[in-house]
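Escalated from tier 1: glutathione holo job.
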Amino acid sequence: MDSAGQAHAAQGAAADTALPGEVDRGSVEQHHRRVGWLRRRGAGQLSANTLYGTRDVLPHNIGLRIHAMLKIYHVRGTRSVRPIWLCYELDLPFEIEPIDFSAAFRNSAEWRAISPAGKVPAMTDGDMTMFESGAMVDYILERYGKGRLSPAPGTAESAIHHQWCWFSEATLVRPLGLNRLLKHKGESNESLAADAEEKARVCLEVVDQAVSDRDFLLGSQFGAADIMMGYSLALIASLKVLDDQYSNAQAYLERLKRRDACRRAMNA
Ligand SMILES: N[C@@H](CCC(=O)N[C@@H](CS)C(=O)NCC(=O)O)C(=O)O
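Tier 2 regenerated the structure:
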């Protein structure tokens, strides 16, 4: 492992608890065989990725531990964009598993075993399987973020980070979800739809104000709350509710969309 890899591994080992994908002691020998095999084929610096296509190789006394790869079940343009965008920002290795968004597939026993409510996204990390995009973002930050893109837990800044993460999903886009459902069912209840849009507009005004004097939700530094909010705003923009009345929010969304990690996630 190169020196950067060793430093990374040491950090990971310190933070490590029980990891899925643990390798037993016998694998030390396999590891050396694999290094030799790659070197004979002209490989230079061997990172954990080159070796295993996984996140870290962690020296753990006499054995090796290998992180299993994060797998994100994805449909383009859906909320799976959030954890994917975060992985790109953090430069984490992960795997995208495209899935079929048809109702038939989402209702299938196969998909319900992974995502019990039939929603997208879902994510696995070794033996762990989870749903809810915001919870995935939290997990990735806690497990692999090494303090990046979120404030230290327990601080006032962290409280505000959580506030925006929850607001983006639980409050801002919620009324429009109802609106869509009604339209989808052909139950065009005009007053309910108008009420839902009005509720969303009140929330948009809050976001517009928040970014009127700053580049990102927490200030000048981009963070994971911007990923949560960025997806919600992109969704609302696609529904034509984010319009010119909210020029600060529009400019903020454009700023986010210029980020390479955002572009890659939106196009994944
Ligand atoms: N709060 C959930 C929402 C999940 C959700 O509604 N996903 C949409 C795609 S973005 C979906 O699966 N829709 C299909 C449906 O509701 O039937 C999350 O953030 O993961």
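The chain has 13 helices and six strands.
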